[in-house]
Design brief:
single chain, 496 residues, mainly alpha, 2 domains, two-stranded antiparallel sheet, 67% helix
Length: 496
């Protein structure tokens, strides 16, 4: 029973109580003496400074609100950013930041820059490109062309859907891709005879391919962008669009083949022939259609040739926006259709990351302090990878993979920084392997209908039971986690 609506969320007794508990717990963490968190045994001084304590409280508030979804996730991000600015920045509330022994303050300009981080611009450009492609029917035309070679054999049709969805998800929203492909697949699923398990395999191909496909490029899914941005911020270590694609597209293709085999084994086809009839594009072909085609092609080429052109992928991503706005292909009404909530969510994660940076980089130094407080250096490197990957994987099944990555990656950057002196860490690919592995783990989480929007879309067909999704998620996700570890640490690691 809903009592009232707050920030677009229906509020019932459970949500109200959850909100109250989170707020009380947050204020407790922020207001207790810093010695509550422990003291240095040698100096008897608190481990954390007052600003670090406040960042901990804000981090816990953000994590709990994202997990419980009391209010929209993007709203939580905005609250987190404003809280950091008011309580820990050098331009915050005077009576809060003027205290003695408060510790290092964050640079307010760096925190506010989270709203316009280059990766945010990369996603914005990607959204615009994908939206324009849908607007002129380019996505339907591409799907029709790409599915044609796979014929009418059900097994090959399944492979076709896996490949096409994966490719689309590298450049389009996973949710939009899943919704579009379901529209093509729905009439086919309706023709299956009763008892043919193959229709379950086809329905599950949508979330499996959408989730895996997003791993292939830096714009495929927000965790990838979060990984790239934090690597740049913490280590000055950049991963370009073509470099990421070179390393991760082969991983995606191998996982798609693995998924194809697993789905066939779990849900074998009885039907011998399938006809996929994708309707013709009903949108008129105009000069804007050709403009979108050309812009799409030029953008992909520039992304792929970054090494030679020296133009950052983040800058290239804004070219479609400029072209489409100037030509009227993308107007003010279209702007409203962009998923701004994702961008705000990611920005909140970036702000938390900035607040945890070393003092020399304008942060509070919380990340380094946490690493020193937890004996990661005494752990096996493999164990650190396993713990990081499993925590990210399990958490991503219950909250958005974007939120999970935003929470965990800044902490793991600090952990990676603390492990940098260990030669064994470098042998396992160093910070790039660690952070990219965690981002990949977030995308491999697909155990339940609530895990990702593509899962929910596939579940809406009524053909899939939760136990089916659980089985597939465990097998493909488990294989993916193990393979991702070896792929990024030993088989094809990123250059140091």
């Amino acid at each position: 029973m809903s009592y009232f609506t707050f920030l677009g969320h229906p509020m019932n007794l459970k949500r109200c109580l959850s909100f109250l508990v989170v707020c009380i717990f947050t204020f407790f963490l922020a207001l207790v003496p810093t010695s509550f968190y422990g003291v240095n045994p040698d100096t008897l001084e608190p481990i954390f400074t007052l600003t670090q304590q406040r960042v901990i409280a804000i981090f816990v508030f953000t994590a709990m609100m994202w997990i419980l979804e009391v209010i929209p996730t993007w709203t939580t991000s905005v609250v987190a950013i404003v809280s950091i600015l008011l309580t820990t920045s050098n331009k915050g509330l005077g009576f809060l930041i003027a205290k003695e022994n408060i510790g290092a303050l964050t640079n307010y300009k760096d925190i506010m820059a989270a709203f316009a981080d280059p990766v945010i611009m990369l996603f914005l450009g990607g959204f615009v490109l994908a939206f324009a492609a849908t607007k002129v029917g380019l996505d339907v035309q591409l799907a029709k062309v790409m599915l044609k070679p796979f014929g009418t054999n059900p097994k090959m049709v399944l492979l076709g859907f896996l490949v096409v969805i994966a490719v689309f998800s590298m450049f389009m929203s996973n949710t939009a891709t899943a919704a579009m492909m379901l529209a093509f697949l729905a009439p086919v699923l309706a023709t299956f005879p009763e008892g043919d398990k193959g229709k379950i395999a086809l329905a599950l191909s949508i979330p499996v391919a959408a989730n895996i496909g997003g791993i292939g490029t830096t714009i495929g899914t927000p965790p990838n962008g979060t990984a790239v941005s934090n690597l740049e911020t913490y280590f000055g270590s950049s991963i370009s669009f073509p470099e990421w694609a070179l390393h991760m597209v082969p991983f995606v293709l191998i996982m798609i083949l693995v998924s194809w085999v697993v789905l066939q084994l779990m849900f074998p086809f009885s039907t011998k022939k399938l006809e996929i009839n994708i309707p013709k594009n009903d949108k008129p072909t105009t000069w804007r259609t050709y403009l979108v085609w050309a812009t799409f092609a030029v953008t992909i080429i520039l992304w792929a040739t970054e090494y030679f052109t020296k133009i950052s992928s983040n800058i290239v991503a804004l070219i479609p926006l400029a072209v489409f706005v100037c030509t009227g292909t993308f107007d003010k009404e279209d702007i409203k259709q962009i998923d701004w909530s994702v961008l705000w969510l990611v920005a909140g994660g970036f702000a938390l990351g900035y607040a945890m940076l070393d003092i020399s980089k304008g942060g509070t130094g919380l990340g380094a302090t946490l690493v020193n407080a937890i004996p990661f250096g005494e752990m096996s490197i493999i164990l650190v990878f396993v713990i990081a990957g499993l925590v990210c994987y399990l958490l991503s099944n219950f909250i958005s993979n974007s939120a999970t990555a935003a929470l965990l990656i800044p902490i793991l950057c600090a952990v990676s920084s603390g492990l940098a002196a260990n030669p064994a860490f470098a042998n396992f690919g160093g910070e790039k392997a660690m952070i990219c592995f965690v981002a990949t783990c977030a995308s491999l989480a697909m155990l339940m209908p609530i895990s990702t929007p593509p899962n929910a879309i596939a579940f809406s067909t009524g053909l899939i039971k939760t136990k089916d999704m659980l089985k597939v998620g465990i097998v493909i996700g488990g294989i993916g986690l193990v393979f991702a570890f070896f792929w990024l640490t030993k088989i094809f690691p990123f250059a140091a």
